[in-house]
């Protein structure tokens, strides 16, 4: 890894645990404990089913109940939100410091090893980081906006949509799942702004490129006067509490204003 690539990795990691990542050479053989993230999107692998079951058990344990007391779709939605947040956060961190990768990594490119209760270990192709570190700024604002929108679209239509498709199989509404994506984008930017206020403008610019994409345009509202974000769906986590009477998230459509 070149010095500039290594420095960029360290700068992104400084934004918080969901931004931290390792790197590997594209196409290199897997080494224990690393696995391809694409396995979670293949139903025949059973990995997503296993992860949803683990999240279900953890949610139920929080209320002192058996796993079966939590609806499967609730656990699937919560698992999905965590997976998406982990994928988009380091890429938005790169965007805040430099720009979104013009060719974002696919789920097959990304590597992970599983864990609950926080950010699981994630590894990005070294070539992706090197390309971001060495790309030249596009000459004009209009051209830059087009390039940025294209990169945002490639991320949403690639690994993010693959995760949406995988979790939709658990009877979770796609409206909820794309709401999860919008919430993950907004949450990542909030994390960046909190950790590095000087990066607020580029982070918000990158987020807007994603939030204005057709996949997310109808999944949220964003008040231009104060920047207040609100999703147009609920991740369902409140239903994991006894009697489905848990607290809702701050950006939830169910929050009374």
Short description:
This protein has helices spanning 3-13, 47-62, 72-97, 126-134, 141-168, 174-195, 200-211, 214-217, and strands at residues 22-24, 35-36, 111-113, 121-125, 220-222, 229-231.
Q: Could you please describe the fold and organization of this structure?
A:
- By secondary structure, this protein is of the alpha+beta class.
- It has one domain (3-244): Transferase(Phosphotransferase), domain 1.
- The chain has eight helices and six strands.
- A four-stranded mixed sheet has the order 1-4-3-2. A two-stranded antiparallel ribbon has the order 5-6.
- A hairpin with a 6-residue loop joins strand 5 (220-222) and strand 6 (229-231).
- The protein is globular.
- The model has no long low-confidence stretch (mean pLDDT 91).
């Amino acid at each position: 890894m070149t010095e500039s690539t290594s420095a960029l990795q360290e700068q992104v990691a400084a934004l918080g645990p969901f931004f931290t990542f390792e790197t590997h050479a594209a196409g290199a053989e897997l080494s224990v404990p690393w696995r391809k993230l694409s396995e979670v999107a293949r139903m025949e692998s059973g990995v997503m089913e296993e992860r949803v079951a683990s999240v279900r058990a953890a949610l139920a344990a929080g209320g002192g109940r058996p796993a079966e007391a939590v609806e499967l779709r609730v656990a699937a939605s919560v698992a999905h939100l965590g997976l998406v947040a982990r994928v988009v956060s380091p890429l938005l961190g790169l965007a805040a410091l430099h720009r979104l990768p013009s060719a974002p990594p696919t789920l097959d490119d990304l590597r992970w090893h599983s864990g609950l209760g926080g950010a699981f270990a994630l590894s990005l192709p070294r070539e992706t980081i090197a390309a971001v570190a060495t790309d030249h700024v596009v000459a004009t604002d209009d051209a830059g906006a087009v390039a940025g929108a294209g990169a945002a679209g490639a991320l949403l239509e690639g690994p993010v949509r693959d995760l949406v498709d995988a979790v939709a199989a658990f009877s979770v509404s796609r409206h909820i799942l794309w709401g999860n994506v919008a919430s993950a984008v907004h949450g990542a930017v909030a994390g960046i702004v909190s950790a590095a206020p000087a990066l607020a403008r580029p982070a918000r610019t990158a987020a807007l490129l994603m939030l204005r994409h057709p996949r997310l345009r109808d999944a949220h509202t964003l008040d231009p006067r104060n920047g207040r974000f609100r999703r147009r769906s609920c991740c369902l986590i409140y239903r994991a509490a006894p009697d489905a009477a848990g607290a809702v998230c701050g950006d939830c459509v169910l929050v009374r204003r």
